[in-house]
Amino acid sequence: MGPAFLYDTFPDKFMWAVGTAAYSVEGAWEKDGKGKSIWDTFTRGGTRVSRGDVGSDSYHNIPGDLRALQQLGVSHYRFSLSWPRIFSNGTKESYNKKGVEYYKNLIRGLKEIKVLPVVTLYHWDLPDSLQTLFGGWSNLIMVELFREYADFCFKTFGSDVKFWITIDNPFVVAWHGYGTGVVAPGIKNDSDLPFRVGHNLLKAHAAAWHLYDDRYRSSQGGRVSMALASHWIKPSRTRQENSKACQCSLDFVLGWFAHPLFVDGDYPPCMKRNLTHRLPSFTETESLYVNGTADFFALSHGPALSFQLINDSLLFGQTEDLCLRMLLYWVRAEYNNPPIFVVESGWYGSGNTKTKDAKHMYYLKRFIMETLKAIRFDRVNVIGYTAWSLLDGYEWYREYGIRRGLFYVDFNSPDLKREPKTSATFYSKLIEKNGFPQKWLYFAHLQAN
Q1: What does the alpha-carbon distance between residue 373 and residue 106 come to, in Å, rounded to a whole number?
Q2: Distances (CA, A) of 116 to 1, 127, 145, 312
Q3: According to its UniProt record, which protein family does this protein belong to (predicted)?
Q4: Beta carbons of 140 and 196 less than 8 angstroms apart
Q5: What's the CA gap between 108 and 72, in Å, rounded?
Q6: Of 18, 98, 357, 443, which has the fewest CB atoms closer than 10 Å, so is most exposed?
Q7: In this structure, what DSSP letter does residue 347 have?
């Protein structure tokens, strides 16, 4: 396993990133021609008490976000485009010039400070009209609509973007959006629906990847993937059947999407055995079309997945664990040793945490250390790490009850100023040193108690 603490640095050209999601931070929910998203609708129904109408107000504060990125010294910034800000009702006929200008200005600003964009096309905020008219991702028509939207984004922003993520955490979209109803659009009561949604998400991703491959890759030279999320699962006992159950747990969450993309264009055997007629099937042509449509493995790791939201059936009686090193090793072994970009990682503090966020910093240090060990001891090809998140913002089903930002945002202040937290100071130092060199001993042990 190697030493508990490894004094070493990351490979040259390792990508240090930080990320945000549009609905969490942008605000300006109905300004300048933006259409409603499913989150705008979802947060106005049921028992929810707050919304992301303002978030961290990034729409009005590009300079503040750029300053925060400069303070961190990151090489890359992962952010998402809001589909209804670009096409207000989801189709290209509803093109919204002002929304597009916002993203052009952001990308221009990033270029000036020499930070490269990592752009997510879909981070959960579907145009509400597509949900109302077609039933959202449950409808096969979404494959063509997503392809049309992706085409516009590749054409408009692609000359400055080298990393694209089509869809963030399709597991959450399918299972919790259309199964448990915990996140937007909040649909539940049809146990087969999440699997139909997952099927359409994979097809939509593949359509966008092929489009990029055919039309844009030769001139733009970028890479495209889908962000898949998981925690590690360990056996509750050491018996062999428990290990097999762990494989099944991982297959139902990570493998659901990773197996078709990285292995053979089909669902994992464990899913097919357990779900028999409930799981849609790929034709041979579809399998060939889906398989291999990821240029790197985009891995998310953190509280947004939250196995605790899942009934125990998906854990198959086994235990959830936060070990990122084991998860990275698993991806290497199971999915043919792909280059792995950790596109979301971190933990959170409580909603009343201000700038001293020792817990968040502890987890950040732990996850980065586990990444370094995976590279040095397990020969995992990790090419980048993304701390989550740049700013405090609206945290989905937890609303403002937790904070995940490296920068503190006072939601009650008129200008929503960004203030660096302890975790921001730690992360910027770590980036500067490119890891944990021996001479940085004092800082490494700051959190020892």
Answers
A1: 35
A2: 34, 27, 27, 40
A3: Belongs to the glycosyl hydrolase 1 family.
A4: no
A5: 19
A6: 98
A7: -
215: three-class secondary structure by DSSP:
helix
Distance from C-alpha of 360 to C-alpha of 367, rounded to nearest angstrom: 11
Q: Domains of the chain: which residue ranges?
A: 15-444
How are the residues of the chain apportioned to helix, strand and coil, as percentages rounded to the nearest 5?
A: 45, 15, 35
Instruction: Locate 337 and state its tokens.
Output: 């040793």
Residue 124 has pLDDT above 70, yes or no: yes
Tokens of 186: 């909040």
Give residue 155's identity as a one-letter amino acid code: K
Rounded distance, CA 373 to CA 126, Å?
38
* Local structure of residue 2 (DSSP, 8 states): -
Sequence-ordered list of residues with C-beta below 8 angstroms from that of 445, at least 6 positions apart, any chain = none
pLDDT at residue number 237:
76
Residue 449 has pLDDT above 50, yes or no: no
Give the residue-averaged pLDDT of 372-397.
97
**Looking at residue 391, what DSSP letter applies?**
B
What do you get for the CA distance between the two ends of the chain, in Å? 23
Cβ atoms 153, 50 nearer than 8 A: no
pLDDT digits (tens, 9 = 90+) for 393-437: 999 989 999 999 999 999 989 889 999 999 999 999 999 999 998
Mean pLDDT of the 94-112 span: 98
Closest CA to 345 of 113, 99, 19: 19
- What is the token pair recorded at 377? 């001891």
CATH architecture of 15-444: Alpha-Beta Barrel (3.20)
The dihedrals phi and psi of 52, each to the nearest 5 degrees, come to -95, 30
Residue entry with tokens 């509803």: 94
In whole angstroms, give the CA distance from residue 421 to residue 409.
Answer: 10
State how far the Cα of 426 lies from the Cα of 310, in Å rounded to an integer.
Answer: 33
Residues 175-217: tens digit of each pLDDT: 999 999 999 999 998 999 999 999 999 999 999 999 999 999 9
